[in-house]
Amino acid sequence: MLSLGVAVLLVRWRAWRGRGRAAGQEPSAALDKGFIVALDIQVGMGLLLYLVLSPLPRLALQDIGAAMSDGVTRFYSVEHAFGMSVALIAAHVGYARLRSSSPPGEHYGSALLGQAVWLFVTLGSIPWPGLPYGRPLLRLFF
Ligand code: HEM
């Protein structure tokens, strides 16, 4: 997901720098579409965790005060969910700007900005290993 998002960012950056010059610098529609679909699926899985599978948001609702003073519960119930939702909105705004770019190049700057915000907020919202609320990068067993 992350590498796909970084690839989208790089391609948009190249397209933004080359706008108005040669044809063929346009971002790849397939790459952009693939990224946004993968992101929607990922957020859908996050929502499933949030609303059904994870005990942490339910725990937070039972005693909000206690949950906010516990870093792990607060991270998954508020910070992670909020951050990833903001990132989702930024990515969708960037994608919509790109699609409404007519003539090609017109909205490349804001499309690039949307993707950069997505990356920045996502990097800050991931439970990286080593953080108090961190999780392994790869889970082979539950
Ligand atoms: C691109 C978006 C997202 C990414 C990359 C992402 C990534 C992750 C990762 C890596 C974990 C740790 C999983 C593990 O234990 O191995 C996690 C857990 C979790 N995520 Fe997300 N997430 C995203 C969006 C969301 C959203 C939008 C929500 C809620 C609305 C959400 C809610 C949760 C919850 C509640 C957990 C903790 C589950 C638990 O341990 O009980 N996520 N997420």
Characterize the structure shown:
The protein is mainly alpha-helical and 142 residues long. The chain has one domain (2-12, 28-125). The chain is 72% helix and 0% strand. It is built from 6 helices and no strands. It has helices spanning 2-17, 29-53, 55-62, 64-69, 71-99, 108-125. Helix 3 packs across helix 5 (71-99) and helix 5 (71-99) packs antiparallel against helix 6 (108-125). The two termini are 21 Å apart. The model has no long low-confidence stretch (mean pLDDT 92). Bound molecules: protoporphyrin IX containing FE (HEM).
Instruction: Outline the low-pLDDT stretches.
Output: none
Please outline the major beta sheet. none
Number of helices: 6
Name the quaternary structure.
Answer: single chain
Kindly provide the radius of gyration, computed on alpha-carbon positions and rounded to a whole number of angstroms.
18 Å
The ligands found in this model are: protoporphyrin IX containing FE
Structural class by SSE content:
mainly alpha
Query: What's the overall average pLDDT, rounded?
Result: 92
Percent strand = under 5%
Categorize the overall geometry: elongated
Please tell me the total number of domains: 1
Write down how many β-strands occur, each being a DSSP E stretch of 2 or more residues: 0
Give the helices and strands as they follow along the chain: HHHHHH
Terminus-to-terminus distance: 21 Å
Give helix % range. Answer: over 70%
